[in-house]
Amino acid sequence: MDITKLGAEELRVITPSEEQLKKIKASRQEIYIVLDNVLDTYNIGSVFRLADAVGAKKIFLCAGSETPPNHKIKKASVGTWQWVEWEYFTETREAIKSLKLKVKNLKVVAVELDEKAIDYTKADYTLPIALVVGHESDGISKEVLDMCDKIVQLPQLGINKSLNVMVSLGIVLYEALEKNSS
Fold first, then answer.
1. What global pTM score does this model have?
2. pLDDT tens-digit profile of 82-135?
3. How many helices and strands in the chain, by DSSP H and E?
């Protein structure tokens, strides 16, 4: 399905029509993104932009995560928050339970520094998949990690122990795309 690409200038001012949203929705992949208490609105906006870039089906904003229409989310997302379907849940666990009920054979993968984590390049990212990322300082809650089928992490070779949540998510999403295209 051919979809017209829009630049940042256009995305910032255009409100998508129902027809455009229907066309976009039909082209989305079975990739879901779950934000567990991600607080930085610029991170949230960037995740919308990333979700659009990889053709993710839906974002779940959970717990303390801010929701659109928020000025900082709107700015960081360059308007893509209007194009990517999203839903808010007060409890991340409820979002994952709901998603597992609706999507058959869903794998839930946490992107987190954890003793049970494997290298992100070694994971199976067969679709449908939900990728979970967490709070910028505290990470994903223990209760949510316990619901995940797998935990992946990125190697840290320098002094800093972690990357920005959106950067980590982006690396893992593109790894998933790569593995699903071969």
1. 0.92
2. 999 999 999 999 999 999 999 999 999 999 999 999 999 999 999 999 999 999
3. 7, 7
Those residues of the chain that have pLDDT short of 70 are 1-3, 182
Distance CA 145, CA 66 (A): 21
Token reading at 155: 């190697």
**Alpha-carbon dihedral of residues 92, 93, 98, 101, nearest 10 degrees?**
140
Domain assignment present for residue 102? The answer is yes
| Rounded-to-integer distance, Cα 182 and Cα 180, Å | 6
3-state secondary structure of 127: coil
Q: In whole angstroms, what is the distance from residue 133 CA to residue 36 CA?
A: 6
Note whether residue 47 is domain-resident.
Answer: yes
CATH number at residue 105: 3.40.1280.10
Residue 99: inside a domain:
yes
